[in-house]
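Q: Could you predict the 3D structure of Cytoplasmic dynein 2 heavy chain 1-like protein?
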Amino acid sequence: MPKPKTAVAGSSLGPYPLMSHDYAAPASEEMMETQSVSVRRPLESTPTKIPVPQKKVEGDGQPEVSNVAILDAINNLTAMMELFGTQLKQNSVMIAELSKSVEFNAKEIKNCKSASSNLGKEVSKMAKENAELKERVQELECYKRRWNLKLRGLKEKTEERTRDEVLGIMAKINPQWSTKLENMVDSVHRVGKLETGRNRQVVIQFTMRYYRDEFWRRILQYAKI
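A: Sure. Here are the predicted structure tokens for Cytoplasmic dynein 2 heavy chain 1-like protein:
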């Protein structure tokens, strides 16, 4: 097998001869130095003289206040103080009167509280007595009902004489008392609300419980006959 040919530098032999180029020239270095220049300001000179303050000239600025104006201001201030003193006295009098009114009202309130407390006790006492009276009235009503008899089924008419009709029925039940019934019976009346198609009950109140009991026995005997 044949060996490949190699090119030698600087020789013109071989298939690829070497060539030189112009851009491979050596570069030169330059050194630059800069100098800074410092500028200094000269010191200010110290003043040798102190400034003298200027004197005020008369007539410059605000005008002077006269004695008359000062006297008027004093008089006005005095008048204001006197007015303030008068008002202060009036306020003191009003405060004293208000204090008296407050004390009087406090006493009145105290008296009202005491009276209210007493009234509360009286009301409690009266409430207790009222409850006792109601109980007694109920007992009396219950006892008084024992003197009464109720009659049911009596037909009610527009203009009726209930007492006469009831006394007639009682005379039929006990003929012996027919002449005494006017004195034996105290009152006769219907009870309850008037309604159409409904006959109200009739209450017969006797003058004595004895008459009521005797008449009730007679009714029981009459019912057995």
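Q: Anything worth pointing out?
A: The radius of gyration is 71 Å.
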